[in-house]
Specification:
20 helices, 20 strands, 2 domains, Rossmann fold
Length: 489
């Protein structure tokens, strides 16, 4: 049987002894251990879905952040330690293993880099994730009976994984996949970054050089075997300068590697028929609990307990999410129609201030919760009738799928994953309300269209029941990733 070398120089049996493709999913965050958004949700769901396929074994590796709870730490097993070179410095790395809900997780330990408040936003993030990317290779020799065929890296934080594989480690049996979850965040540093913390040979410097500096995402795209992104439409949009944040030239040069696979959602976590976080459970066969959830939420917020259409927005308050489109029209929508408006999210101070003003001007019709609260979001989905997702760009988006899952009809702009997951229901069997032009007028028309449908009770009931039956699970996405993995082996 064929042999393979591990990172520590040991010899391991070929991965094909059980006819499974071995995937090591490298991520900077993962539900339920440490999470800040969509990447963490995907990392918490896709590996589980892949492991339900008979020919795939997927394991996850991530940093051991201070945010990882003692509940999980107490169940971890220590596998070993070594030193990892970060250019001229040697840094400690410990490796821990945890088996949780059918997936094996590895945690890279270094308290200097990872025992901090928050996952990102530190002055040395580039160095922190260069260390993590290199530590992944050093960790391979400590993993028992597991030698990956493919390391699947995600976003700029692990973009150096394919760069290190190509330039330093050169495991000829191992391939890499690089997934772009949001091209806006690329890991751009000054031109001394290679000497300061990356540490690759000079003859590979060109793969990272970009516009006078060093771009980690560019390096990942250039050196990986396959590039995926989180929806088919976003894969096409990345070739357009309007959407690519300067990366269109690199994307187009590597378009033969590119594929778009729509994310799914965790249909166990987001299930109104069983969700313990909402006031009453409901399903397409019995929707009575939806009204109970609305009444409970209205009471909790101090809003009138009535049948007004409740429009919600659960979002980061940043320009890409289309907040600018709401500013000219939201006062009129609330003031002149029988609606309630609820916001859950944080972001730019000027946007937070706008929504605080909305609540102040409409105290009986609006509540704006400037916070990030995952448990509270379940209550919002369950109570609200419609969900605003007017994004300027949206690689995939999960909130619109979760909205459907809770019969909270999405109002979306046709872009990225919103275009791939939400179809306009005005003339047929769609699952939401869609507008095209990035304009306040387009958003206003879509909201008024939804409002008119809501006031036709039978039509709204049909839409709600249809949305509850939409399948946004991970099975089809996992099949697409399986085919992608096979194509590069």
């Amino acid at each position: 049987m064929a042999k393979k070398k591990t990172a520590a120089g040991k010899t391991a049996q070929s991965n094909n002894k059980n006819n499974k493709i071995k995937i090591l999913y490298a991520t900077s965050e993962c539900v339920p251990f440490a999470n800040s958004g969509g990447l963490g949700e995907v990392a918490g769901s896709l590996p589980r879905a892949l492991n339900r396929k008979r020919d795939i074994e997927c394991r996850v590796i991530m940093p051991l952040y201070g945010a990882v709870s003692d509940e999980f730490r107490e169940k971890m097993r220590f596998l070993g330690s070594c030193e990892v070179g970060v250019t001229w410095r040697m840094q400690y790395m410990g490796l821990f293993e945890l088996r949780y809900k059918g997936v094996t997780y590895y945690f890279v330990d270094n308290e200097y880099y990872f025992k901090r408040d928050g996952l990102y936003g530190h002055f040395d993030d580039g160095e922190r994730f260069a260390f993590f990317s290199k530590a992944i290779f050093e960790a391979l020799g400590m993993m028992e009976d597991f030698v990956p065929d493919i390391i699947h890296a995600n976003d700029w934080q692990t973009a150096l994984v394919p760069v290190y594989q190509t330039s330093i480690y050169k495991r000829d049996f191992m391939k890499t996949v690089f997934s772009i979850h949001n091209v806006e965040y690329q890991g751009y540093y000054g031109d001394t970054a290679i000497e300061d913390f990356i540490g690759i040979p000079d003859n590979y410097r060109h793969v990272l050089e970009f516009k006078g500096g060093i771009n980690l995402m560019k390096g990942g795209i250039e050196t990986t075997n396959a590039v995926s992104t989180v929806s088919p439409t976003y894969a096409m949009e990345l070739k357009d300068p309007f959407f690519s944040f300067g990366m269109d030239g690199i994307i187009n040069r590597n378009s033969h590697k590119l594929s778009g696979i729509l994310n799914g959602i965790n249909t166990v976590l987001y299930d109104p028929a069983k969700d313990p976080l909402i006031a009453a459970n409901y399903s397409a066969d019995d929707m009575s609990g939806k009204k109970e959830c609305k009444r409970d939420f209205q009471k909790m917020l101090g809003l009138p307990e009535n049948d007004s259409m409740m429009i919600a927005m659960i979002s980061r308050l940043v320009p890409a999410k289309g907040v600018d489109l709401l500013i000219p029209i939201l006062d009129d929508i609330i003031g002149f129609n029988d609606v309630q408006f609820v916001l859950l999210g944080t972001g730019y101070p000027e946007y937070e201030g706008f929504f605080r003003g909305i609540e102040a001007r409409h105290p009986d019709k609006a509540r704006c919760m400037i916070q990030f609260d995952t448990a509270l979001s379940h209550k919002v989905y369950a109570a609200a009738d419609a969900l605003l997702v007017p994004s300027r760009s949206e690689p995939c988006g999960l909130t619109q799928m979760i909205g459907c899952r809770y019969a909270c009809a999405p109002i979306v702009r046709r872009t990225g994953g919103l275009a791939d997951s939400i179809k306009d229901c005005t003339l047929g069997d769609g699952n939401g309300f869609v507008f095209d032009a990035y304009s306040s007028d387009g958003l206003y028309s879509a909201i008024m269209n939804a409002y008119g449908t809501y006031n036709r009770a039978d039509d709204w009931k049909k839409l709600a029941e249809h949305d509850l039956r939409c399948d946004f699970g991970w099975s089809s996405s996992a099949n697409a990733y399986r085919e992608l993995y096979k194509s590069i082996l």
